[in-house]
Write a structure and sequence with these properties.
The protein has 22 helices and 8 strands. By secondary structure, it is mainly α. The protein folds into 2 domains: 219 residues, Fumarase/aspartase (N-terminal domain) (Fumarase C, Chain B, domain 1); 264 residues, Fumarase/aspartase (Central domain) (Fumarase C, Chain A, domain 2, Up-down Bundle). The strands form 4 sheets. A two-stranded parallel sheet has the order 1-2.
Length: 547
């Protein structure tokens, strides 16, 4: 991909979009981000022109072609006249724009635009180059469609949400105001109550930016909405954060192990050598790297009588590692999907030296491959956050930690982290509900023509919610582990300092959140640690760790 991506641009080939590119483009919209622009490669343009020429030749023969000169779904047997083909495309977009609920975020909208353009650029949809160029013009001018989150069953593609995207492209939908100063100020101030910019009619923004809407030609309306780009875009952005959280959980777990005076022996390479799961191997190496061979804390308790630690400490390589393996596999599948042709029908123009091509009806729009992975990643991240909460419980329990109850210096007068653990437990329980797989459900739609569906877009939305909850749980573990390290004293009552990466993480947290000598509003402390996670400051400490 190195030759397709530059510092300030991304060139679409339809072949090599990856997780990093999706994240960069999704966030390249404000003054604090790289203003990355996206353009269509020459090879993609040639493939699209060849495909379009073949479609136009076939239309000229009078053949019935699904979605080109027929109705859609259960109306596929209804023939449409040549004079009505363009009206057919507009009617499709209007009638399918039935999404409800909250909007996807601006970043998610940008990622959806990118993936829709990339899929169409592969040249298997039979549409004009101008369609993809218009999608990219919207993206590069930061004219981002406001897409309702609910209404897709994840087969025949993300029909309803992608129709809202297409509706904006043809000048009839709604978009986020790119010049909403209140939103920009809220983002700068890290005010989370402002979720997305003001939503306005696209016509207002097009006039201001000097951009013209797209006039749809034969097959182009259908091609705009067939595919899994919504679930894939939302899933990839969530997976990017989940990947970082997996590394941060290693770091938080190591901090807790030090505060609990736990043993490093469970991370000996001899152990993982005889059970060589990739994630387990990497996690054990990460923990050894974070903790180092020893520390002042380890030296203090090296002669204690404890034989082995609780599972939440001893089994970190197995649990964290299994989560990493699931997330890694999920990212691989979603990246394949991001570079796939998902239209119906698919157009295979004659190759060089061949006389005939094919236009094939198919089911490449079905979201099951993506839905399964989104559900699996959701389950994995929920389990990883659950073991983090287990460690918080150990920290506040004096019978397990040997520290003051609830990490309160003056217990009774102060409640300490009592309800920090309760809140973490609530989020873990919520994640259990959200982890019920969406992909095991199906319901017949479109007069039983579309009789099995994936629910993949629901899976992507649930996965995103789990990521947010896991982020808060891991922030709570960092907070409690830092408090515990402050309370850990030697036989003379002197504080025992951490070392290595644990100390770096502790120092970073303490630069934002002071030691709690007495009770205060711990919500603010949790939010401060979450800011360290979301800003990337804590993640940067994990630069040498393995995923």
């Amino acid at each position: 991909m190195a030759d397709q991506i530059g510092k300030d641009f991304l060139e679409l080939t339809g072949e090599d979009i990856d997780l990093k590119a999706v994240w960069r483009v999704a966030h390249a919209w404000d003054a604090s981000s790289s203003q990355m622009k996206v353009r269509l490669s020459a090879s993609a343009q040639e493939a699209m022109r060849t495909s379009r020429a073949y479609i136009e030749d076939r239309i000229g023969t009078g053949d019935a072609i699904y979605g080109v000169n027929t109705g859609f779904g259960a109306f596929s047997s209804v023939r449409i006249s040549d004079e009505e083909i363009e009206e057919l495309q507009r009617n499709l977009i209007r009638s399918h724009s039935v999404g409800v609920g909250d909007y996807f975020t601006k970043e998610q909208g940008r990622a959806i635009l990118l993936l829709r353009a990339n899929a169409l650029s592969r040249g298997h949809s039979g549409i004009r180059v101008e369609v993809v160029e218009k999608l990219l013009e919207f993206l590069n001018h930061d004219i981002i469609p406001a897409i309702p989150q609910q209404g897709s069953v994840g087969a025949s593609g993300d029909l309803a949400p992608l129709s809202h995207l297409a509706l904006a492209i043809i000048g009839e939908g709604k978009v986020f105001d790119p010049d909403d100063q209140d939103f920009l100020a809220a983002r700068k101030a890290k005010r989370t109550e402002v979720r997305y910019p003001r939503v306005v009619p696209v016509s207002e923004v097009l006039k201001k930016k000097g951009v013209k809407p797209l006039d749809l030609k034969a097959k182009e309306g259908l091609s705009m909405i067939n595919g899994c780009q919504v679930m894939t875009a939302v899933g990839l952005l969530a997976a990017y954060e989940a990947k970082n959280l997996a590394l941060l959980t290693d770091l938080a777990g190591a901090m807790t192990l030090e505060a609990m005076q736990g043993s490093r022996s469970a991370f000996d390479p001899l152990i993982t050598k005889v059970r060589p799961h990739e994630g387990e191997l990497k996690t054990a190496r990460n923990l050894s790297k974070i903790l180092g061979p020893t520390s002042p804390i380890a030296e203090f308790h090296k002669d204690c009588g404890r034989v082995q630690d609780a599972y939440s400490l001893r089994c970190m390589p197995a649990v964290h590692g299994a989560a990493k393996d699931a997330i890694r596999r999920g990212i691989q599948v979603l990246e394949v999907e991001a570079n796939s042709s998902t239209d119906n029908p698919l157009v295979f123009a004659p190759a060089a030296g061949e006389k005939t091509g094919k236009i094939l009806s198919c089911g490449n729009f079905h979201g099951e491959p993506v839905a399964f992975q989104l559900d699996f990643m959701a389950i994995a991240l929920s389990a990883m956050a659950s073991i983090s909460e287990c460690r918080i419980e150990k920290l506040i329990n004096p019978a397990m930690s040997g520290l003051p109850a609830f990490l309160a210096p003056k217990g009774g007068l102060n409640s300490g982290h009592m309800i920090v653990q309760v809140a973490a437990a609530a989020l873990v329980s919520e994640n259990k509900i959200l982890s019920h797989p969406a992909s095991v459900d199906s319901i017949p739609t479109s007069a039983d023509k579309e009789d099995h569906v994936s629910m993949g877009t629901i899976a992507s939305r649930k996965f995103q919610m789990i990521v947010r909850n896991a982020e808060s749980i891991i922030a709570m573990e960092f907070l409690s582990a830092a408090q515990a390290l402050d309370l850990l004293k030697d036989d003379k009552g002197q504080k025992i300092p951490p070392s290595g990466l644990v100390k770096q993480a502790y120092d970073l947290i303490r630069s934002k959140v002071p030691y709690a000598e007495s009770d205060r509003i711990f919500h603010d402390d949790i939010e401060a640690v979450r800011d360290l996670i979301r800003s990337g400051e804590l993640v940067r400490l994990c630069g040498d760790l393995e995923f």
